[in-house]
Specification:
about 450 residues; mainly alpha; 3-stranded antiparallel beta sheet; 18 helices; 3 strands
Length: about 450
């Protein structure tokens, strides 16, 4: 599989972002090069008949979603905003299409999810290391942006509070924060909340991304029950659990519980699985999470964002306000992917976006039903369950994050498409269709979620 090297390299540079930490890599367009390598590899695989690629069931929905989002943005906010919206969704869309159609066998699929598992463990390890570093002073380059995003330059001075960083040998007029330094130039935020960098610089998004790789460790152990793989599964739960606590992300902790719970319920039954998931997950929830005035302030801001999003929907229910335009109407983003898709792309946009998620999960459910009790299809059963558990965590996590166009979401949409093509390689009759009943179910789910968001925003704000 010639596309595999490019795809794994693309994941490496998307997640770890070494190009941001190593000056010699900053001049190299690593992401573009990896995407080109993956695309060329896919073309070579097809031309040499090494792969027979069938369009993923989600492909047309992703394309329709992109076209509708850009059209809605153009109509509501003009050509400049439409161009910005196109740039916002381009990389996630390309990543999804390449993964969905560049992986056509279970061997390649295992390499892809193994890469994601190793990347998740690396990021979790960096987070745990960061959490145990002493606080130090960071000089901010841009006082507003750096407080929220990538941090500043570590100047080596120890501290316990922000006030201490404004004493001694300081640069006149500079602003400082007291945070924990980490590997690869990372730093904590909010006085100790661990985070990574790049697309995972937000602690909540970091917690979601690492929580979703946990089922892959279980799947590798299930594929070959060796001592080392059992140790890998245990290490994954411990390391990801610790890092999730250190992020202080309440949503991330719910993701961790949802992933464990869904996986254990499938493996051990409803009662035993739920109990097992709770025994492991609840301590994580009790240990982590912010409290006090800062947590209350964050909750109030998010409720206000939900309230503002509902008003945007009322003003433009069909087209929305346009991709990337939520923050032009409110001072923070929606912090809810379902609301963000609805507010920025209207009711049709939410339907297309939800249909893409629904179809991705339906691929896995159909596979679990089709291959149940068939020993020769055990590999498909194992990876369908692992990916479905990841999706359960994803659906929980994106309820608290603006993840509608996030590249991590589209990586997993791509994995569902890759799984579909891997199944078809061994079972050409494997099909997943989208019926009117499916459309009705998606519409009903959208109505229920929107109603729940409306009630939550009113109760909190009022």
């Amino acid at each position: 599989m010639f596309s595999l090297f490019g795809l794994c390299s693309l994941l490496f540079f998307l997640y770890l972002r070494p190009q941001e930490a190593i000056p010699s890599l900053q001049a190299i367009p690593a992401l573009n090069l990896c995407a080109v390598l993956a695309a060329l590899g896919l073309v070579i695989d097809v031309r040499l008949h090494r792969a027979e690629v069938a369009p993923a069931p989600t492909l047309r929905w992703v394309l329709l979603l992109g076209l509708w989002g850009i059209l809605a943005t153009f109509v509501k906010a003009g050509s400049s905003a439409a161009y910005d919206g196109f740039n916002r969704i381009l990389i996630p869309w390309v990543v999804m299409v390449l993964i969905a159609h560049g992986v056509t066998s279970f061997r390649s699929f295992q390499i892809m999810v193994g890469t994601l598992l190793l990347l998740g463990l690396t990021i979790a390890g960096i987070g745990v290391h960061q959490a145990h570093q002493p606080f130090g002073c960071f000089q901010l380059k841009d006082a507003w942006a750096d407080r929220e995003l990538a941090g500043g330059k570590y100047d080596g001075r120890p501290c316990e509070t922000n006030r201490e960083c404004f004493t001694g040998d300081i640069e006149p007029g500079a602003d400082y924060l007291c945070e924990r330094p980490g590997l690869l130039g990372t730093s904590s935020i909010g006085h100790g909340r661990v985070r990574y960098r790049g697309i995972l610089q937000d602690p909540n998004e970091m917690a979601l991304a690492i929580g979703m790789v946990v089922p892959f460790a279980f799947a590798f152990w299930e594929r070959r029950r060796k001592v080392l793989r059992a140790l890998l599964a245990g290490l994954t739960v411990i390391l990801v659990g610790m890092c999730t606590v250190y992020t202080q992300s309440r949503g991330g902790q719910l993701v961790f519980i949802a992933v464990l719970g869904s996986y254990f319920v499938r493996r051990f039954g409803l009662v035993s699985g739920a109990v097992s998931g709770l025994l492991i997950g609840v301590p994580i929830l009790l240990l982590g999470g912010r409290s006090g005035a800062e947590a209350d302030s964050s909750a109030n801001e998010r409720a206000e964002a939900l309230y503002a999003g509902i008003d945007m929907i009322r003003s433009s229910p069909v087209l929305g306000v346009g991709i990337t335009q939520f923050v032009e109407h409110h001072f923070i983003t929606a912090h809810n992917s379902y609301l963000l898709a609805l507010a920025e792309m209207g009711l049709p946009g939410l339907f297309l976006w939800s249909s893409t998620l629904y179809l991705s999960m339906k691929i896995l459910v159909v596979a679990l039903r089709r291959y149940a009790g068939r020993p020769e299809a055990q590999v498909a059963m194992t990876w369908a369950m692992a990916l479905l558990a990841s999706y359960c965590g994803l659906l929980v996590g994106i309820f608290f994050l603006s993840f509608s166009y996030h590249v991590v979401l589209f990586v997993y949409l791509g994995l569902a498409g890759a799984f579909y093509n891997a199944c078809r390689r061994h079972d050409p009759e494997f099909e997943v269709r989208y019926s009117l009943l499916d459309a009705g179910f998606v519409m009903a789910a959208d109505v229920m979620v929107t109603g729940a968001i409306f009630v939550m925003s009113r109760l909190k704000v009022d």
